[in-house]
Amino acid sequence: MNTVTEVRSAALSLESVSRHYGRRGGGRGTTALDTVSCAVPAGSFTAVVGPSGSGKSTFLQCAAGLDRPTSGTVRIGGTDLGPLSEAALTRLRRDRVGFVFQSHALNLVPSLSIEENVVLPLVLAGADPAGAGVLARGRELLTRVGLAGRGKDGPSTLSGGQQQRVAVARALVTEPDVIFADEPTASLDPESAALVMALLRDAVRVDGRTVVMVTHDPVAASWADTVLTMDGGRLR
Ligand SMILES: Nc1ncnc2c1ncn2[C@@H]1O[C@H](COP(=O)(O)OP(=O)(O)OP(=O)(O)O)[C@@H](O)[C@H]1O
């Protein structure tokens, strides 16, 4: 790694992060992440690639505060996640992290309208869902992702690609330190995938957001500024 200054100014940093999974039936267990260190600069787009089982998902889970490493330090926007209580970690994920998951079916809450899905992180943080600011932000983001006028509809009325675009809008709504995307194009046709990637790219280029994306898809990875390759739990 990287100098101390790089780590301090990074949107995301991992210092010697390992994640071991316990032994089962007398086996030796698995080291899914092995002393991984990296600093992701603010305003950059990073793709994490590597063969199946190389540790990409574990990297993302630990980096995003969805899982706790066995050892090492993860910082988001300079905050060390290690000492945080579960409640504080949940708040940090809600307020300072955006997520776009693999399956569009898992990304959106089916019982909420499209615009309610977009502003959900703001509402969970205490904003008034009927407040003028919240409604305007929802509309602005839906326009941005090409879905103006669809806000009152339900997610099931959208195609998979459109639903992923709503997920990107929701990931942007809190202006998070880092947006984590886990195989965001996995279930999409090439055209829909390109639209989703262009939105993530613009979030970086236009808004200065930071995106970290796990992908198997070389076309998706080609949109990133930096490609990190995992192999056997390590960064190559
Ligand atoms: N909950 C778990 N319990 C035990 N082992 C696990 C667990 N999760 C992952 N592993 C193991 O950790 C290693 C890394 O898995 P991980 O899912 O991070 O890889 P990946 O690169 O994301 O794979 P894929 O591309 O197939 O999703 C693998 O050997 C996997 O079997």
From TrEMBL:
Record-linked SUPFAM superfamilies = P-loop containing nucleoside triphosphate hydrolases
Show where the ABC transporter domain sits: 12-236
InterPro entries in UniProt = AAA+_ATPase, ABC_transporter-like_ATP-bd, ABC_transporter-like_CS, ABC_transpr_LolD-like, MacB-like_ATP-bd, P-loop_NTPase
Q: Which domain of life is it from?
A: Bacteria
KW ATP-binding (keyword) present: yes
Provide the alphabetized UniProt keywords: ATP-binding, Nucleotide-binding, Transport
Q: Which GO terms describe its molecular function?
A: ATP binding
**Coiled coil ranges:** none
Q: Which PROSITE patterns match?
A: ABC_TRANSPORTER_1 (PS00211), ABC_TRANSPORTER_2 (PS50893)
Gene3D superfamilies linked to this entry: P-loop containing nucleotide triphosphate hydrolases
- PANTHER family for the chain: ABC TRANSPORTER RELATED (PTHR24220:SF685), IMPORT ATP-BINDING PROTEIN (PTHR24220)
Protein name stated in the entry: ABC transport system ATP-binding protein
This chain's source organism reads Streptomyces clavifer
Upper lineage: Bacteria, Bacillati, Actinomycetota, Actinomycetes, Kitasatosporales
